[in-house]
């Protein structure tokens, strides 16, 4: 009886460990575009995906907005895009990707077990040229929120078994000057659903159904300029 109890306990631990590992496995980042394959419609994967590995720590937020501590990742979109997808997962986990930008904060804290309930926004600025990108220019820019997401069932569950990771897709609206995905400076805003501290590693990905030659993704303006000017 005791041996049976021990065996059951071991199996329970193995099941939990397997679920925890599989929970952080990302699926293909699909667009909203579908193709008909026989009787089924299949989502078409984004052809261009850039990944950013980062770490958020309390007291380093970029802005407090509506009582929440917001952090920003800056994105330079070099061509007109029909759609932009953004997804975020915390903790970051491990991925296989061609285009990965790893921040120094992530490298220093990659062994952290902290994670947070992600809440993301996609915002477009009124800066449309590389020459307009500077610390002062960004501080004085006007930002328009295009889309937001809290919990997505398409994303893996976090280690706590909750569907608290985020994904959004935004299709360009050519009839709205503020809603078109033009060349320019964008940012991903992220925080938590509930007001409080944001702490943990994260993976953010930006996807597009068209190639974005010269795209830049960075946590700071100086790092972004270094990327897109090299």
Summary, kept brief:
Helix content is about 20%, strand content about 40%.
Task: Explain how this protein is built.
It is a single chain. The protein has a single domain, classed as Jelly Rolls. It contains four helices and 13 strands. It has helices at residues 2-23, 104-109, 135-139, 221-228, and strands at residues 30-37, 40-45, 48-56, 63-65, 68-77, 83-89, 100-102, 118-125, 143-149, 166-171, 184-192, 200-208, 216-218. Mean pLDDT is 89; it is low at 3-23.
Task: State the end-to-end CA separation.
Answer: 67 Å
| CATH C-level category | Mainly Beta
Strand content: 35-45%
Structural class computed from helices and strand pairing: alpha+beta
How many domain regions?
A: 1
- Oligomeric state of the chains in view: single chain
Report helical residue fraction: 10-25%
Q: Overall mean pLDDT score?
A: 89
- The beta-strand count equals 13
What is the number of helical segments per DSSP (H or I, 4+ residues)? 4
CA radius of gyration:
19 Å
Largest beta-sheet details: 6 strands, antiparallel
Q: Would you give the CATH topology? A: Jelly Rolls
Succession of helices and strands: HEEEEEEEHEHEEEEEH
| Overall geometry | globular
């Amino acid at each position: 009886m005791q041996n049976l109890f021990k065996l059951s306990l071991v199996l329970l631990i193995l099941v939990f460990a397997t679920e925890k590992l599989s929970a952080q496995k990302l699926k293909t980042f699909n667009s909203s575009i579908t193709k008909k394959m026989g009787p089924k419609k299949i989502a078409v994967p984004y052809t261009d995906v850039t990944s950013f590995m980062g770490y958020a720590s309390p007291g380093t937020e970029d802005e407090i907005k509506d009582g929440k501590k917001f952090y920003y990742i800056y994105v330079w979109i070099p061509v007109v895009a029909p759609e932009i997808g953004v997804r975020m997962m915390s903790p970051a986990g491990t991925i296989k990707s061609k285009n990965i930008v790893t921040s120094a904060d992530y490298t220093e804290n990659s062994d952290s077990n902290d994670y947070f309930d992600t809440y993301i926004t996609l915002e477009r600025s009124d800066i449309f040229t590389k020459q307009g990108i500077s610390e002062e220019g960004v501080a004085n820019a006007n930002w328009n929120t295009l889309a937001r997401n809290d919990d997505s069932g398409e994303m893996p569950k976090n280690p706590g078994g909750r569907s608290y990771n985020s994904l959004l897709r935004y299709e360009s609206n050519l009839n709205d000057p503020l809603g078109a995905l033009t060349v320019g400076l964008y940012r991903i805003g992220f925080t938590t659903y509930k007001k409080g501290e944001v702490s943990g590693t994260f993976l953010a990905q930006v996807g597009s159904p068209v190639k974005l030659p010269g795209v830049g993704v960075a946590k700071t303006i100086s790092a972004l300029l270094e990327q897109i000017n090299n």
